[in-house]
Amino acid sequence: MNKPVQPPASAYFITEEKEKSEARTLALLVDNEPGVLARVIGLFSGRGYNIESLTVSETEHDKHLSRITVVTRGAPHVIEQLKSQLDRIVPVHRVVDLTLLGRNGQLDSPIERELAIVKVACSGDERAEALRLADALRATIVDASVGHFVFEITGRVWEVDQFIGLMAPLGLVEVCRTGVAALSRGKDGM
């Protein structure tokens, strides 16, 4: 007797990807109006791709423009398709793949930073160690009491990850991260 074939969990994973998945940082200049973010994010979810980091803020108030920075991971040909589709959405003015700028002879990889606020509850030796590590990794104390610290750290994603990893055994309580903010190097803008 033949066993029934189980269908795939999602239609997005029916075809096997032959290209290696890679992380990409995309910057989009968009109109600052309701629904734009939902349309942009819908393209990613519609293709079954996760967004690893997302930041959005109005950057040019007089022109009503916002900048969306998205970090995603996928096969290069699919990322190229996403970029092409993003370029065709009416309120999107420009799409720049900051990751490729660094590879194509521009000055270097993009400047990427993230902000995290990290709450650590500790006492005794753990308290002293948390202060020592925060000082070594240039984290700032933004709140403190006898039983806890709240640190602010800004840096590259791996630096923020490292700080959080070091605080975990000392009494990590809570973490809030902004997501990646990124700019290309050099004198030119978007």
How would you portray this structure in words?
The protein has 190 residues and is an alpha+beta fold. The strands form two sheets. Strands 5, 6, 7, 8 and 9 form a five-stranded antiparallel β-sheet that branches. Strands 2-3-1-4 form a four-stranded antiparallel β-sheet. Helices cover 30% and strands 36% of the residues. The chain has two domains: 19-103, Alpha-Beta Plaits; 111-182, ACT-like. Chain A, domain 2 (Alpha-Beta Plaits, 2-Layer Sandwich). α4 (125-136) runs antiparallel to α5 (157-171). The chain contains five helices and nine strands; from the N terminus they run βαββαβαβαββαββ. It has helices at 36-46, 76-88, 98-103, 125-136, 157-171; strands spanning 22-31, 51-60, 65-74, 92-97, 111-121, 140-144, 148-155, 172-177, 181-183. Residues 7-11 have low confidence and may be disordered. Keywords: Amino-acid biosynthesis, Branched-chain amino acid biosynthesis, Transferase. It catalyses: 2 pyruvate + H(+) = (2S)-2-acetolactate + CO2. It is an enzyme of class 2 (transferase). Dimer of large and small chains.
Radius of gyration: 21 Å
Beta percentage is 35-45%
Proportion in helices = 25-40%
Q: How far apart lie the N and C ends? A: 62 Å
| CATH level 4 superfamily of the largest domain | ACT domain
Biggest sheet layout: 5 strands, antiparallel
Number of helices: 5
Output the keywords.
190 residues; alpha+beta; Alpha-Beta Plaits; 2 domains; five-stranded antiparallel β-sheet; four-stranded antiparallel β-sheet; 5 helices; 9 strands; 36% strand; acetolactate synthase activity; Acetolactate synthase small subunit; branched-chain amino acid biosynthesis; Acetolactate_synth/TF_NikR_C; transferase
